[in-house]
Give the backbone structure.
Amino acid sequence: MWRLLPVCLLVACAANDPQPYARDGTQPARERIVRQIVAPLTPSTAAIPGEPSRSSFQRQGMRGWLDNAGAWHIRGEIQHARLRCATYETGIQLGRGDRACSSPEWLTDVEYTTSLRHCNQATRLHEGGGTFSATQNRLDEVNCVRVLVRCAGAC
């Protein structure tokens, strides 16, 4: 009887999985936003001659920058609170709003940069960047950023 207890527990845990997997068993079937940070951009004080000027942000452990040519970079630690694995992605969106960015108008779609698998309650560093090319003529209006963390799997 006691030998069957671990097997019964394993079957019960698998049957109650809140995040079903895709048919092939490799990719989680659903994604959801698990963290959202909205922050104002602060102009950089140290401009380098001949280089694009940068604005930066930092809030709740996430930091990054955006330059006037559309290049951007984000960096932050993402915590995974479960034993089972999940895949986390970080992304950024640009907008304009008041000084506190309380209800900004978003000017771009979300650009995702990282995709990392977390297991066993791991905290991992997500860092990456890209370029917003479609917003070149509106970059002077941008004063807010939104950093999104989405998760698929056992989030």
